[in-house]
Design a protein that fits this description.
CATH superfamily: NAD(P)-binding Rossmann-like Domain
Shape: globular
Helix content: 25-40%
Order of helices and strands: EHEHEHEEHHHEEHEH
CATH topology: Rossmann fold
Strand content: 15-25%
Number of strands: 8
CATH architecture: 3-Layer(aba) Sandwich
Structural class: alpha/beta
Oligomer: single chain
Number of helices: 8
Amino acid sequence: MTTMGLIGAGRIGSQIARLAVQNGYDVVLSNSRSPDTLASLVRELGPKARAATPVEAARAGDIVVVTIPLRNYRSVPVEPLAGKTVVDTNNYYPQRDGHIAELDDESTTTSELLQAHLPRSKVVKAFNHIYAAQLTTDGLPKGTPGRRALAIAGDDSDAKATVSHLLDQFGFDTVDAGPIEEGWRMQRDTPGYGPRRTAEALRRDLAAAKRYREM
């Protein structure tokens, strides 16, 4: 895979774009406004980056990262993402997103909402439980003692392998939390949300996670 599309270019999206360019990817950035609002970030990233609309970013990406406020997930273009690996970085914050009944009653998860919106895409939860600034500071070469781990969840094994490879390129070990429905294990207020963890410690955190109704 040589091109990464980004739907959303805020704190997390811009950091992922920086890592992608550093690792040889071409990057197509988009946001909810217009491509010209991304001019300064594109200049920073250099010739391997360009700005586009969300539809164009979805079409261009071999792998596409959705990193927008969760309340806007229905705005993600569907057809251009058919068959593609889609990385979901989203978290649910009711004070920002408004209350979403099926998340409040925990009958589904954020990534399952996106997967239902993108029925022919392969959604993988990732990058949602690390502070954005640490994406470009905490990565270490493979095999380094104490290397930070990040969790993923998804239903497609090939898509998860693709995202695991991406994490390794960016300097992180991967912990597979299981199918997409297990993505709640690294949501806000769980033990693994935020702090730096090795793979072993992150596995313990995921196992110890509780649903909100159990807290």
